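note to self — DONT lose this again. spent like an hour looking for the file last time. sequence + predicted structure for the chain T wanted, 218 res
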Amino acid sequence: MYVCTQVCALLRRVNIAVDAGVAERLATEAKRQNKTLFALANECLDVALRVCENEGNLSLVPELLTTRRFHSEMNLSPIPLSLTEFMVRKLYSAYREDLVNAWRSTGRELATYFRMHAPDLATAASIGRQVWGLKRLDILTDGNSGNKFELHSVGAGVSQEFSECWAASLSGFTSKYGYAAVRAEVSPGFVRMLVERSEEPFPPEFSAAAFLQDRTLR
C-alpha cells in the first residue's frame, strides 16, 4: 500500500492509504494536467462523493463517459424509442427492403468509427451495449479460433419490424469486422445471430428481402 498525505480545506491533515498502482496513476495524471497531487485527489474525491450522495454507482461512471463520447463524436441524437418505433413501422410496410438496407449500411458506418476504439468484435460489442442502450449484447464463441460467434441481443425495440431492422444493422456492423451473418432468429426485442469469419465481408449480391426471409437468415 502507498500512503498519500493530503491537507484538506480546513487545514486538517488526513492520511489516505491507496494501492501503489492507484498512487502511480494519480501522479501521472496530475503531471499530465499540470496539477498538484492535492488538487487532483481533492477533485476526484469531490466528484466521487457527489455521485455517491446522489445514490449513483461509481462503477458506472466510466461507462457513462464512454457513451457520452461516442454519442458526441458520432453525432447521435437521442430520440425516444416510441417515436423511432412509430417511424420504422410506417416505413416498413411500404419500403421494407430499402429500410433494412439503410439500417445495414448504418451498421457498417458505425463500425468504421468503433474500430478506432475497439479492434475486435468482442470489445466492440461491450461498448455497443452501452452506446445503444441495450439490455444485453452477448457474444458466445465455439472456441474455433474466433472464426465463429453467436450474438444475443436483447432490448432492441419492442416490435418485430424494429427488431428486423436492428438485425440488419447488426449484420452490417459485424461485416466491417470481417464476419458474415449466416443465420438469425428475430422476434420482438430479441435477435440471435450466428456470424462466421468471411474473406469477403461485403457481398455485393446482398438482398434485404433474402436476409429477412421468414425472419431467418438463409
